[in-house]
Write a structure and sequence with these properties.
Number of strands: 4
Helix content: 40-55%
Structural class: alpha+beta
Order of helices and strands: HHHHHEEEEHHHHHH
Radius of gyration: 38 Å
Strand order of the largest sheet: 1-2-3-4
Number of helices: 11
Length: 327
Amino acid sequence: MYSDRERWAEAYLLGHFFAGMRSTQRCEGMNRYLNRFVTVRLRLFEFVQQYHRGLARMRVADAGAETATKHSTPVLITQLKSLEKNGTEVYTQYIFRFFQDEIQRASALIVARRVDEVERRLYFVEMYLRRESNWTVEYYPIDYRRNCRCLMFESFGLPCCHMIVVMKYEHLSSIPPSLVMQRWTRSAQPQAEQPNIGEISRSISHTARFGILSSGYKLMSFYAAHAQDSFEDARQVEHEMTSWMRKRWEMTKNKECIAQIGEPIDGNTLFGVSDPRVVKTKGNPGKNSTAQHSRNPRKCSHCKCRGHDKRTCPKLSSMPPIDDVPI
């Protein structure tokens, strides 16, 4: 028993839903993912930008998985075509792979016998040529509830291979609704309604604005792609809107460049954090500073006047050359 101490916790986790998690790998995985974007040497405003960049990458990956689920169909590889096809219609593409593995495992199992009781039915499932490996599946006709001794459905939310053997035994062509967990279905993530303009805060980040616009225009693209006329009109509006927004963006960038060289502009700063103001440093302003020249203008060494030097002194230029002086 001590040699199997690493599996002690699994006995207490069975029957409790943890979405397949058995350790802190979800937190550790998130920490490892954010370490790609966040380092200890980042400034505060850089940290906020990198953090939103990491969230944007996660949203893009989630949108890619959702698109693959909606617009692609997995290949059916088992002989239970009806159950497998129903699984593609119910589950997401990622969860369907686990369900497909359970269907393949069900090929090595058989229903040894069935016992009908007053309130339930008992199915005794055995492994082919290995009768010592057996499980019991319970079915309650009153509420269509099914339970298996392996407790996979209670732990992970998917029907186990033993339940699939019972479905095959009863000639079911679809997964019973009592064995479908809403969390793993295609409709688990409801379509979010677009918020009203008055409900959106003006202080939200660039990533949040990008996500709201992407979600709204994705729905418009869905309806516009159904007809050629709607598609051409949407393309024309998209081209005009993009040109107009690009001009506004260029004007904003020009104002930001002017502000960086010393002229302030009005507007909200990103995330409430902006660059510090440029001020004059204390001490010697430097040799090339215009302030030094304005405070200490040049002084001629001949006439002691300011504004010129000995080479351009007007008094020396008015004196006759040395050769013309009589000896």
